[in-house]
Amino acid sequence: MIACIRHLLVASVRYSISRNLHVRSQFFRSLKQVSLAVKKQLHIRAGLFTPVTLLAVSMASETQETTPSASSEILNFKEIFEKADQLHTAYETCKLYDLLKPYQNCEDDQLLWRLSRAAYDKAKREHNKDARKTFMYESFGYAKRALALNDKNYACHKWYAILLDEIGQYEGLKIRISNAYLIKEHLLKAVEFNPNDATCWHSLGYWCFMFADMPWYQQKVASALFATPPTSTYEEAKKYFLKAEEIDPNFYSMNLAMLGKTLVRLNENDDARKYLNKVSSYAIRTVDDKKAHEEAASLLKKIGNK
């Protein structure tokens, strides 16, 4: 019994200093083990029912009702991530969000950036503007926490940058432009840590296109905010969009559409048609796919589809 109590005390100390969900789940398993040991030895000495052992029994039975069991919902993190990535690939946005949402208070960067991604996808599916905004800010909150936990994780930088730009669209043109350098900084960090993620390269291409294509009135705002305002070129945007295609061909309808649009701006219409026609044959499964189809159709109408 003394060994059981010692085991519980060690576990409780680890629990109190740890923010990791895996360590906390181990703590609850320790509680259950001590609870069973206590119950088996009740006939030996009632005096051994100290406050510590009473706490163990109480918390162990309580966790059976208030926390997922180790064999069911508190899965191995690897299993959670694999399931989450499968659902994301299958466009099962609601199921993905529901899978990860119960763990929103955990302190694990890998889980939080995936939850950020899920909330972001939920936001993009929303037709109600208020609901969309709510999910977008929720997503940004998870991305910030993930990055604070691990600034060496490329995905944390990627989703923080993506959501920082999205939030800027709600907070006004000045805020969005003032975040520009920070967004690019995080995207460059993301490709530094993982140069094989096509979405990071696409996002860099989009950043460059946005500033290369910026209207004059937005340029004035940028000039007022920065001594040296953010600038880019269509050539730079093209380079990043092509890099994304090189890494993962046809991975994203919007990358094809934006590459085609950039080539139109550069008067490289023959190459533009190649990518825009690829969009036309792309299945519409997301809001972005629909937007890409509309963009491609408009551009092909403008330059002619030979």
From TrEMBL:
Assembly with partners or alone: Interacts with microtubules.
An example Gene Ontology molecular-function term: microtubule binding
Pfam families registered for this protein in UniProt: RMD1-3 (PF21033)
Keywords from the named record: Cytoplasm, Cytoskeleton, Repeat, TPR repeat
Gene Ontology cellular component annotations, sorted alphabetically: mitochondrion; mitotic spindle pole; spindle microtubule
Spans traversing the lipid bilayer: none
Top-level taxon: Eukaryota
Gene3D superfamilies: Tetratricopeptide repeat domain
PANTHER family in alphabetical order: REGULATOR OF MICROTUBULE DYNAMICS PROTEIN (PTHR16056), REGULATOR OF MICROTUBULE DYNAMICS PROTEIN 1 (PTHR16056:SF16)
Location of the protein in the cell: Cytoplasm, Cytoskeleton
Main location: cytoplasm
Name of protein: Regulator of microtubule dynamics protein 1
Statement: the UniProt record of this protein carries the keyword Repeat: yes
Database matches in InterPro entries: RMD1-3_a_helical_rpt, TPR-like_helical_dom_sf
